[in-house]
Every structure is written in C-alpha cells, then in structure tokens.
Design a protein that fits this description.
Length: about 650
C-alpha cells in the first residue's frame, strides 16, 4: 500500500490516525472461536443504494472445523450495519447475536474436526468510514463512486467476515450496479448481466486464495482499455485499466510502464502469481493506492499525466507477490509487505535509470540522516516510515551482504515456497529461506535491524606509510551512536595515484583498527561509497527525484531550515498571473497538506509550513515532498521534519 492517514492507533501519526474516522479500534485479534475454524470460500452479494449511500448484502461462507465440538461461529461486523438474518446451507434458520462488532452464529449441531458447513448472513445499513477508507460513497467530477479499502482489518466495516490476514479463501462477489456503471473487482469477471430495471449484475470470481482485507469493489462510470502481457512461461494475460473519463489521457501516460514492470518483477521475484486471471488498476478517490489482489486501487491524486508517481505503480504491483501471494500471519509482520514493495520501487528505478539513480532513491528514503521512529517490529505506527523505508534498507543491505545472485534467489525461493505460496508467513520464514539460500547465518543481522531502533554512526580516520614498494593504509573505525554496537561489513575504497582499490572490513566493535596494503600512494579513503549501509553519516548530496517540466519559469527553491522542527519556510518563484498550487506529500504519495492554491504575481513567494496536516494535526517526523504546479509545469523537492 502506498498511502497513510488514517492508520494505526499507536499515537498521533499522519499515516494512521483514526480521529477522522468514526471507528477508533486500534487492533484486531482473533477471538478464541475464530481460531477453531478455517474459511474455505466466501460468496458475497451486494446491492448498493447510491442515493441513500447504503447497502444490502448477503454473505455465504463455507468453513471447516479445526476442532471437535465447534458449536458457534464468530464473524466480524461493525455495529453500523445490522445483521438481519442467518441460516445454514440447508436453509435452517440460525440464532445469532450481534454485539461488540461480532455476529455470533449458533450452529444447529456441533461440528467434528474436519467437518464443513455453510452459513449465510443477511445484513444492511449505511457503512461508516473506517481505517483508511472502509467502504465510502464519494464523487468524482460530479459522478458518484462507491469504493472500498479495507487494510488492515476493516472488511468488517462493510461485510461479515473473518477479518484476519492469514485465513485466506476463494471468493465470488456479485454486485448490482446502477445503469451505465462498471464494477471493478478481484479475479475474473465471469458474468455481466443486464437486469430488466437497467442495472447490471457483475460477478467476479477469485480462484486464488485471498485475504478478507484484499477483497474490494470500485463502482462508477469507468472508461478504460485493456492490453495483453506475455509471461515468461509464455502464458498470455489481460491487463485491465479502469479510470474516470476525465482522467483517461493522463492514465495512459502514467500507467504506460505496467508491462515493463511485470517483465522485470517476473524475473526478479518469479512469474506473476495470478497469471491465470489478470492484473489491473482502477482509479478511486484517495490520495494513495492499495494493492487489491489482481486489481490495484489507484488514487486520483496520483494520476497526473506526467509519470510523476510511476514508482508507486511498481510499489503496488510488487505487493501482488509480497502481500497477496505471501501474506503476513499478523500485522506486526507487515515489513514483509511494505518493506519489500518499497525496495521494489528502488529495483524499478535501477532497471530504468541505472545504479546511481537507485542509490539516490535509497538515500532519499533514509530520511536524510534523521532517525526512524521505533523498530520495524513491532511497528509503531503500523504503516509508518520505519516499516516502509527502513524496511527497504534492510533488504538493500542484505542484497550487498549475500550478493545479487543469492539475494534474488532468496526472493524467488520465498515466493515459490509451497508452504508459503498463497498462504501466510512470518519473519522467521523469510530468515530461514535467506539463510538456506545464502548458506550464511543471518539471525544477528535481522535482530539488529528488525528489532532495534536507530542505525550506526561511524567516525573514520586513516593514515598511511610506505612499506617496501607498497603503502600500508591504517583505518580506525569508531561507532559513535548512542545505542548498541552494530556488526556490519563495511566497504572502503582507497583512491591512489594509480587508481582505486576496494576492501571490505568486518566491523563489530566500538573502536577498531585495521590495515591493508595498496600498490600506489594513497590519496583518500572513502567509507561505503556505494551506500550499502544505512548509517547516520552518509553522503549529504542533495537528490531531487521528481521530474522538471519545461514551459514556464517556475522554480522551487530550497526550504529553510531543512531539516526543521516545528516549522519551515517554503520558497518559490512563480511565473506570474498563472494559478499556482503548492502541496505537501508524504513518502507514499498521500497529500497531507494542501498549502496554497491561488493566482500569484511573478517573482519570489514564501509560505510557512507548521508541520501540520489539513486538519491541523501535527504530522510525524520523516521525509515529505513539496510539490508545486502551474499549468504545464510541476516541480518537487524533499524536506525533512525532525522531532
């Protein structure tokens, strides 16, 4: 997922703040009863009323018992919706209660271990916003749209289910859409039936196991196009794109790299896992995106017509492997989704623009020498910078330690492991595979970077002296951070009068001295010049990773101060008598502050940001992007808020 606001409830944070939602539940854990059964199939029918902004629905659930004596079934459903009836597969009424966001069904006869049963729940009501979105009726260009985003545990805001990521099932979803509307969904569209009243009944079937949070619908007056992609195996698959009519031309530009991304990721990660169905993207009203299985929901603010957010197309696509094919057992393990998808952005940049561009991108997400809040696990907040950005750095460092061949074999082995594929995983599963493939003990590395806060800070000095026809270079390494010592291999490049020589030093102490011979007079010693280690004293080169469009004399100047706390002054030169929009976007593309929208005179302008979002709430520390736009031009620049 590339987004934020709302998110976890581990404190105020722009990526997980439920204050804008009627729902304030901070977590979802299985009830004891939910551990006693397994969902095998969902059959969901929805009839939305766009005028009343309400829904009527029925869910038919096939489940199997994991214990003897199962006599009830707990399903998650928020109280905003009313369960109106329940029966079993033989149409025998079931007694039930609906309280504390649980529908508890009493079975007619207790089940033995391995027995299966079908239960049916009818429900209705007006879904309230929950989590990032839940299910909401919104508008684009005056036209209604119904869309869902349920991550991490808000499927229960719009249908009865077992709202846990590790219980995956096959699914059929039927939705009755208004005349002229299209319903985008998961899997394969098996039927599109025109009804006598002008409405259309869409039937989507997902034959691959899917988590409840990944089941989605998006319904509006979509237009779009299809393409054909050929997988490495030779299989052909349809790519389906659904966009708002007003954004069609822009989406044609922004999503043009989809096939090339599928080509790349199928080599790096293994063949696209849902190749027998499809891959698609459907635009919706949101300032981020969500990797719904086989049909990514892509926010309208990311459709710009200039490829500005192209890397986020790759981020969501990568989730089809890391999140949808292999899903976390619980949300504390979310690095297995977001860290991997963020590093997939870097791999796309490397493929498209080269290693230096990828290195600049990795530097830009290391928060410009600013620390990350909390450990990667358990994440605080659930979807914060630490999980995404530090998580990507963990993979980057692992790649350097084991080498490219083993690193990408680790990823392909992880996604092809029969015990994990179309199932659920934990950190231990990934670490086991990484150690097996690389024949290297790596628990120390993951302990340092997954569970500890911070990063190393190296103070390096060196001197040299002649030794025969060579020179002995002595390097002193001191770790000066206010935390435990890190054990890491460090690359050093010695620039000499005859060229450069590279050495790798295993650093595992607070103070360490090492030496080696070079064959010409040394001129300089550089630590980690290719930036493979997440550290405090990385190179401070300024990187602007956003495109510049010619045509107007628009200039975004460096903000001051930067880094900043609590406020900074944004400075720019406007071309004059043209509308100017200035906004601040987080690392995953969500606009947190619409700063300015006005026609300005030409010349220098300033605007002070107090580090607050559009609702006046303070945002978290991290890297943000200032985006300035006039007709025909857009520029962006990173800024860093520290706390």
């Amino acid at each position: 997922m590339s987004s934020p606001v709302p998110r976890s409830a581990h404190g105020e944070h722009p990526y997980f703040d439920f204050s804008a939602s009627s729902k304030t539940t901070s977590t979802k854990v299985a009830t004891p009863n939910q551990l006693l059964y397994d969902i095998e199939h969902y059959d969901l029918y929805l009839e939305p009323d766009f005028g009343e902004k309400s829904i009527q629905g029925t869910v038919c659930i096939k489940l199997s018992s994991l214990a003897d004596g199962l006599d009830k079934v707990d399903l998650d459903l928020f109280q905003d919706l009313e369960a109106t009836g329940a029966h079993d597969g033989l149409h025998r009424p079931l007694s039930f209660t609906h309280q504390d966001d649980l529908v508890i069904l009493q079975l007619m006869t207790p089940l033995a271990m391995g027995d299966t049963i079908t239960v049916v729940v009818d429900y209705e009501g007006t879904p309230e916003p929950a989590g990032f979105l839940g299910m909401q009726f919104l508008e684009h260009d005056g036209t209604p749209i119904l869309a869902t985003l349920s991550e991490p545990y808000y499927s229960r805001s719009w249908w009865p289910c077992k709202d846990l990521p590790d219980d995956k099932a096959t699914m059929r979803l039927r939705l009755l859409a208004p005349e002229g509307y299209y319903c985008a969904g998961n899997g394969v569209l098996t039927e599109q039936q025109e009804m006598p009243d002008g409405r259309t009944l869409f039937t989507w079937e997902e034959s691959y196991p899917i988590s409840a949070y990944n089941i989605s619908v998006a319904v509006t007056n979509y237009v779009g196009w299809t393409e054909t992609w050929t997988a490495p195996s030779g299989k052909q698959m349809t790519l389906e794109y659904k966009v708002f009519p007003e954004d069609l031309e822009k989406a044609l530009v922004d999503w043009a790299a989809t096939r090339d991304m599928l080509d790349l990721y199928s080599v790096l990660f293994g063949e696209y896992p849902f190749v027998d169905e499809k891959y698609g993207m459907a635009e919706f009203i949101y300032d981020g995106a969500m990797e719904h299985q086989t049909m990514t929901s892509y926010g309208q603010e990311l459709v710009t017509g200039d490829g500005f957010f192209e890397r986020l197309v790759g981020h969501e696509m990568a989730h089809q492997w890391f999140g949808n094919l292999v899903t976390v057992k619980d949300w504390d393990q979310v690095w297995l989704h977001e860290g991997f998808a963020t590093y997939a952005e870097a791999l796309w940049i490397e493929h498209k623009s080269g290693f230096a561009a990828m290195r600049h991108y990795m530097r830009s997400i290391s928060a410009y020498q600013i620390g990350f809040w909390g450990p990667v696990c358990p994440p605080t907040p659930l979807f914060g910078d630490t999980v995404y950005q530090k998580g990507a750095w963990i993979l980057h460092m692992l790649r350097h330690m084991v080498g490219d061949n083993d690193f990408f074999e680790i990823l392909r082995t992880y996604t092809s492991d029969p015990t994990l594929r179309f199932g659920a995983a934990t950190f231990d599963d990934f670490i086991r595979i990484a150690e097996d493939v690389s024949s290297t003990e790596l628990s120390w590395f993951f302990d340092e970077w997954l569970y500890r806060i911070g990063r190393p800070d190296y103070d390096v000095t060196w001197h040299s002296q002649p030794e025969g026809e060579d020179y002995r270079v002595t390097i002193s390494i001191e770790q000066v951070q206010d935390s435990e010592i890190y054990r890491m291999p460090l690359d050093f490049v010695v620039d000499t009068t005859a060229g450069s020589e590279t050495f790798t030093v295993w650093n595992d102490g607070a103070y360490q001295t090492t030496s080696f011979l070079v064959h010409a007079e040394p001129l300089d010693v550089r630590l980690d010049p290719d930036e493979w280690v997440l550290r405090w004293n990385q190179t401070d080169d300024t990187v602007t990773s956003t495109p510049h469009l010619d045509g107007y004399s628009l200039q975004l100047l460096p903000n001051t101060p930067n880094p900043f706390n609590p406020s900074t002054t944004l400075r720019f030169v406007a071309p004059g008598e043209l509308p100017v929009q200035l906004r601040i976007v987080d690392a995953r593309g969500r606009t947190v502050r619409h700063a300015l929208s006005a026609v300005l005179s030409g010349g220098l302008h300033e605007w002070q940001w107090q580090g607050k979002d559009d609702q006046g709430r303070r945002v978290a520390s991290g890297v943000y992007t200032v985006i300035i736009e006039t007709p025909g031009a857009r520029q962006g620049q990173h800024i860093t808020l520290v706390k």
